[in-house]
Amino acid sequence: MIALLVKYLIDEDTEHLIREGLWRRQPSIDIKVIGEQGAPTLSTKDADILDFLEVEGYVLVSSNRRTMPRHLKDHLNKGGTVPGIFLLRKGTSYRRILENLELVWYVGELDEYRDKITYIPL
Q1: pTM
Q2: Quick count: other Cβ atoms within 10 Å of Cβ 79?
Q3: CATH class of 8-120
């Protein structure tokens, strides 16, 4: 099996500095932020974000620990799939978030995260 590099979609309510920090570490990481061109628009419903992930192959990075698990369950129950969702644990340092996302990008295999929520830090 050929490992494919993880692509990230940063949720609109999640600190966008994550993208700049990851790009400083690994300039070739494919990262989009909700609200920019080529990504879902601001205020997109969670269910529609999951549809975008499924079609475009991005892993969501989000702080939405309250509703995203329910939306993922509904999406999967309808026969959908997603490459994965990374939910950031409350109080996790910026440095630790970057280290974990960089590690996943560098050595992770997409099947490890498919159709589930993984909490950062790992």
Answers
A1: 0.92
A2: 6
A3: alpha beta
Read off the pLDDT of residues 88-122 as tens digits, 9 standing for 90 and up: 999 999 999 999 999 999 887 778 899 999 999 98
Residue burial 1-12, b: 16+ Cβ < 10 Å; e: rest: eeeeebbbbbbb
Scanning the structure block, which residue is given the tokens 């892993």? 59
Sign of CA dihedral 29, 4, 105, 88: positive
Dihedral class, residue 96 (left if φ above 0, else alpha if ψ from -120 to 50, else beta): alpha
- The dihedral through the CA atoms of 40, 42, 48, 49 has a sign that is positive
CA angle, residues 65, 68, 71, in degrees to nearest 5: 155
What lies within 8 Å, CB to CB, of 88 at 6+ separation is 14, 61, 62, 63, 97, 119, 120
